[in-house]
Amino acid sequence: MTTLKKLAAALTISALCSIPAFAAEKAFVTVNGRAVPQYVADAFIEDQQGAPDSDEFRNAVREEFIRRELIIGEARKKGLDKKKQVMGQLENARQMVLVRAYLTDYLEANPVTEAQINEAYVTFTQRLGDTEYKTRHILVENEAEARELVAKLDKGEKFEDLAKDSKDPGSKENGGDLGWMSPSAFVAPFAEALGKLKKGEYSKEPVQSQFGYHIILVEDTRALTPPALEQIKPQITQSLTQQKVETLINTLRSKAKIN
């Protein structure tokens, strides 16, 4: 019964247009003279990953399509399938199915290779570096404010106290603490400044980024061991897949006439 409840939750009324069966197509079920083609049911069943293919399961699918057709028939009688909003929703659903089908076909023909994964892993580890930093920072609006902070630090005021006026809401309440991170986790100017600071030092010159001006304190450093390839391989594969899709779309866009 649990399987049937899950199926009922998954089997929602996703469209108000059933697909008319072609003469050569076997009907999965016919309701009030309208046939649901077998290939429609097969596609739905295939999408239910993890569901056991049993008589009980197929009967539940059959019952759901009957319920759909009964409601769709009533929706047609009221002309709901002719409403622009409904037609737009149906078209959006159709487009998404076609997009998914094309991208699946494209990626099957152009899969991410092991060589590409290995190359991306090497690039990742190089960017990650071999050192991790425990840092604090204070972020302010302009350079003048930042230089005032440096002057106060030079006079012995505590970094944690001054950080209470930081623009960074995520760290100000913790004395500007950013925890342990590799330079690759930060924007470029911040990461570059980290590499010039030793343990216990703070930046005497304000570090400008797109967020404002930072005063950075390096509290400690430690050796960083990158994660093993197998540990992050799924994330690398996903990232490379997204890159392939973006490259494809950019190529198609460059050839398209768009008004």
Give an overview of the whole structure:
This protein has 259 residues and is an alpha+beta fold. The protein folds into 2 domains: 2-109, no CATH class; 129-223, Roll (Chitinase A, domain 3), CATH 3.10.50.40. The protein has helices at 2-10, 38-47, 55-77, 84-109, 114-128, 143-154, 159-162, 188-194, 229-255; strands spanning 27-31, 34-37, 131-140, 177-181, 207-209, 212-223. The chain is elongated. The relative contact order is 0.10. Mean pLDDT is 90; it is low at 1-18.
Please give a handful of descriptors for the protein shown.
259 residues; alpha+beta; Chitinase A, domain 3; four-stranded antiparallel sheet; two-stranded antiparallel sheet; 9 helices
Task: Annotate the secondary structure layout.
Blueprint (H helix, E strand, L loop, with lengths): L1 H9 L16 E5 L2 E4 H10 L7 H23 L6 H26 L4 H15 L2 E10 L2 H12 L4 H4 L14 E5 L6 H7 L12 E3 L2 E12 L5 H27 L4
Antiparallel strand pairs: 1-2, 3-4, 3-6, 5-6
Helix pairs in contact: 1-3, 5-9
Compose a concise summary of this entry.
This protein is an alpha+beta fold and 259 residues long. The protein has nine helices and six strands. Strand 5 and strand 6 (212-223) form a beta hairpin.
Order of neighbouring strands in the sheet with most strands? 4-3-6-5
Sheet with most strands? 4 strands, antiparallel
Q: How much helix is in the residues?
A: 40-55%
The gross shape turns out to be elongated
